[in-house]
Amino acid sequence: MTPPDAAVDSIDDEILTVPAYVRRPDLIEWVYDTADLVKPDSVHWCTGSQEEYDLLCGQMVASGTFIALNPEKRPNSFLARSDPSDVARIEDRTFVCSVRKVDAGPTNNWVDPKEMRSKLQGLFDGAMRGRTMYVVPFCMGPLGSEIAQYGVEITDSPYVVANMRIMTRMGRQALEAMGDRAFVPCIHSVGAPLEPGQHDEPWPCNRETKYIVHFPEDREIWSYGSGYGGNALLGKKCFALRIASCMARDEGWLAEHMLILGVESPDKQKTYVAAAFPSACGKTNFAMLIPPPALSDWKVTTVGDDIAWIKPGADGRLYAINPEAGFFGVAPGTNTKTNPNAMASIRMNTIFTNVALTDEGDVWWEGIDGEVPSRLTDWTGQEWTPDCGRKAAHPNSRFTAPASQCPCIDPDWEKPEGVPISALIFGGRRPTTVPLVVQATSWMFGVYKAATMGSETTAAAFGVQGVVRRDPFAMLPFCGYHMGDYFNHWLQIGRSLPEPPPIFAVNWFRKDENGEYMWPGYGENMRVLQWIVRRVRGRAHGVESPLGYMPKYEDLDWAGSDVTPESFYKVMAVDPALWKQEVASHDELFNRLYDRIPKEMILMRELILSKMWRVPSVWEMAHE
Question: Which residues belong to the active site?
Fold first, then answer.
């Protein structure tokens, strides 16, 4: 394409003029080549300004993509309703196209990269006809950070642009901070070109064909057909985990599906921890935890709720940044009991997707505070009443909000060098078997715990109760290479550190024989977190168990709690018979990764099994 002589003022009418501040020939050439392929009606280089954001949101209100919410109840906020075929990540259409199939591993979908590129070329040929092509430079991480990485997303979705402005440092500031550093090219199209005079949909997408494709060696992402969430916001799971995990493997750091939080003790000493939990295990709630009133002299602050990039520092410690600038959280179940900080974070300047709409112009979802309204407009735009038999909000409905609005955001959350990590925590939803908290006896043992973590299904949600779905490190859908190599990379990180941080396993979801939760959870998790912090500071005791070090009842602060020693020791008990089954079930995962499973995993499995043969029928800590 030949660039025109001049551009016009409106975003809709802007064409291929390159802004004067864009001086990278390689970037300009790539944008021109992409425009030649996708054939948009216009091209807009995003600046990231408030004026640009307001204009885009206004255009989406006019087109029906956005509904402006009541400014008195939810200032500068909008509701989007996706097509029913486009409501979540689509793992079966997500591909890791490494040069060699074996490098993608058995847990990723693989297609030969030449074959995939040929297919994508065909799909993207003319894919943006009738639309504006937006060029979105973005930075993952604080601007100027040595841990940060840069990308440029080309998209034909203004919804994506608006969300990327919240979720990343986006626009001219990112481009200027990038300088001559490498960037990850990301190409996205909703896959719905428009013919002249054709009416557009409020939520354009391709209902039949969707591809989310990663080329690890080329550090490149292509996404076609979906406009939703991580399928389209390519800085999120695609870049920040799948591509970044490959960068981290090659460069000696970690890109993880982890929250980062800070704990400030009454003597003002700050400790940072990172934690990984599979879906539906309370990760965002934990990241924004509010201690119970009796422990109000302790303070928890949030660095990030979803992704952590962790690098060894010159002093031999691990330092972490949150590569994101916003929260893309699940709405259902979020309320002032489960997560008051999240509720405060979405009070304004928020994009809601697939939640319900009240008659007063505010949002609603199952589990939100207050009475259930007698009438709503549901996420599909239909009238909803409590007895209609449908959910008002989609179970995967979301909010996109700036992290800076979170009341508990850590003052150092954008510190370029990151925050020092003193402990790593892993946990899943396990109604049986796994105790409340245990500290691994070594980095190797901790890696084993993280590699074999998972969640048990429930009859209501999944059908067969008690089936454990393994999700190693909570990274199974997000690792951009072979999981066996990933385990070995973690082991190597530990070998390279003079004093690697201790690793803990937690389980808030254990149930008794009546199916009742044995641990109160939510803010009460502070008592476990407090012990972890004291433990890494050398100020708390731990008893050696068959699984690692555990606290006794008196090692936790029970001020204001009605948890008894009997109930505590019950939630900490280890049943050897269940653990023999548990360890045997690890073979299913290990067999899938057989060609590259580190030998340490096999040795740790045998060590745990041998311990279980030497303990009583139920192991409990000695107590009166």
Answer: 281
